[in-house]
Structures are given as C-alpha cells and as structure tokens.
C-alpha cells in the first residue's frame, strides 16, 4: 500500500515522540531535532524546510556544499548546519565556511586544520568531540580512556573548549549503555551538549539526556 504520510506528518510524529520521551524522563527541556538530510532528494528537503525545520545534519562536506552552498543557498539564512560525518583535514576550510557546528572532531591534526582555516574564513564553528564509545576499530572517534588527555591538551595547546560530545553506538548493541557513558563523560568534563540518538533510538537518547538527536530516515523516509 502506498504510504501517504507527508514529510510534515513524519516530523510531527518524531517531535511528539521526543516530547513523550522527555516527559517520561521528567525532563523539563527538549533536545533539538537535527534533520539528517544526507542522501535525501531535494524535494524532501524542500518539504522539511516548509514544515519549519531549521537544523540540518550532513555527512559529507561536498554533498553539503552542493546542497546548502548552491542549490539551497537562497534558503541558507536562519538555518543551522551540522557536520556529523568524518572530516578530512584538507576539507577543513570548506567545512568551517559552511557549517555552524562540527560534531566529528576526533584528532589533533584536524583541530589544527580547523583553527588555521578559521583564521582565513573568520569563522570557527562550534565543535564537538566524537567519542568511539564502542571502541570499534573501524569507527572514528576518540576512545573514552583517551578523552581526558585529549581535552586537556586542546585546552592547553590551543585554548580550545568543546561544546559537547557526540557518539554513534555500535549497530548491533543496545544503545543505552553508550548513551550513559557519553553522558557521564560530558558531566565529568563539564561539557554541556550531548549529540546522541538516531532514527532507531532517539527516544532512548532523549530519556538519557541528549541535547540534540540526529534523525534521518524516520523524518525523510529511506535514503536512496
Ligand atoms: C546517517 C546518520 C544519522 C541518521 O541516521 P538515521 O538512522 O537515518 O536516523 C545520524 N547520525 C549520523 C552520524 C549519521 O551518519
């Protein structure tokens, strides 16, 4: 049967589920909804904008530039763009020019490239450290045990303070232990923001204190 649910309906459903999860957890505030538009066709993104969505997440610099720096450039004002995928140092300048938030900082070399780029572009996005909570070899992110040293080194060497932490739990595991770990790490280091939760687990993440959830397919439908 054809699915007649519109993008606006999907967004309302997700926002409702976030509100319900926050209420269950006794939270007074709500996490921000980051609509992950990677690999989604422009007409769906258009519908999402029309529904009132203002925060978008992208995985790749080039794809994001083509969309938000070109095709949707007239709509860019008033939006917040977040890079949630791995970033190569040689794309740091493009990334600082385009994004308001970079959530995938995971190494000193990248920090150096971002700071150098920010000198040129006059613009340093808000930065999150990605933490590899599942300690998966193929996944990027700082290992939990290395986080304290990394944060203090960034502070000492560059006077750099991060806004928060981000994680992507292993696909085959329950997400909540990873969300707990990320929350404890953020608390221990006095970091205010927690980016955690995707389509399958944004309600759990909301219950466990996410300040933003990154939702793609539950909002837009399956990616191409
Ligand atoms: C693709 C992606 C998402 C969104 O995934 P969905 O399961 O479609 O919600 C969230 N975070 C990151 C880092 C992603 O790469």
Q: What oligomerization state is this entry in?
A: single chain
Q: What's the level 1 CATH class?
A: Alpha Beta
The run of helices and strands is HEHEHEHEHEHEHEHEH
Question: Could you tell me the strand content as a percent range?
Answer: 15-25%
Unreliable segments of 5+ consecutive residues: none
Named once each, the bound ligands are: pyridoxal-5'-phosphate
Helix content: 40-55%
CATH third-tier fold name? TIM Barrel
**Proper CATH architecture:** Alpha-Beta Barrel
Distance between the termini: 20 Å
Count of distinct strands? 8
**Total number of helices:** 9
Which overall shape is indicated by the principal axes computed on the Cα atoms? globular
Strand order of the largest sheet: 7-6-5-4-3-2-1-8
| Rg, alpha carbons | 17 Å
* Main sheet: strands, sense, barrel: 8 strands, parallel
Could you name the key traits of this structure?
TIM Barrel; 8-stranded parallel sheet; 224 residues; 8 strands; alpha/beta; binds pyridoxal-5'-phosphate
Architecture overview:
The chain has an eight-stranded parallel beta sheet with strand order 7-6-5-4-3-2-1-8. The protein is of the alpha/beta class. The longest helix is centred in the N-terminal third of the chain and has 18 residues. The protein is globular and about 55 Å long. Helix 7 links the parallel strand 6 and strand 7. It starts with 6 loop residues before the first helix and ends with a helix. Helices cover 42% and strands 16% of the residues. It has a single domain, classed as Alanine racemase (TIM Barrel, Alpha-Beta Barrel). Helix 4 crosses helix 5. The structure holds pyridoxal-5'-phosphate. Pyridoxal-5'-phosphate binds next to strand 8 and helix 9.
């Amino acid at each position: 049967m054809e699915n007649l649910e519109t993008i606006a309906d999907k967004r309302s459903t997700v926002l409702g589920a976030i509100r319900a999860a926050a209420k269950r957890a006794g939270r007074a505030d709500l996490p921000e909804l980051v609509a992950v538009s990677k690999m989604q066709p422009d007409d769906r993104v258009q519908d999402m904008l029309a529904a009132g969505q203002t925060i978008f997440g992208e995985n790749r610099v080039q794809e994001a530039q083509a969309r938000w720096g070109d095709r949707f450039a007239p709509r860019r004002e008033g939006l917040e763009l977040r890079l949630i995928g791995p970033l190569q140092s040689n794309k740091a300048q493009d990334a600082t020019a385009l994004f308001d938030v970079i959530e995938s900082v995971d190494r000193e070399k990248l920090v150096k490239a971002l700071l150098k780029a920010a000198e040129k572009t006059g613009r340093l996005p808000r930065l999150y450290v990605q933490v590899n909570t599942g300690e998966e070899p193929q996944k990027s992110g700082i290992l939990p045990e290395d986080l304290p040293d990394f944060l203090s080194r960034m502070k000492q060497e560059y006077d750099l303070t991060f806004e928060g932490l981000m994680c992507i739990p292993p696909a085959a595991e329950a997400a909540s232990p990873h969300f707990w770990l990320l929350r404890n790490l953020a608390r221990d280091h006095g970091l205010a923001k927690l980016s955690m939760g995707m389509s399958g687990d944004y309600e759990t993440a909301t219950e466990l204190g996410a300040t933003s959830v990154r939702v793609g397919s539950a909002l837009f439908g399956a990616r191409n």
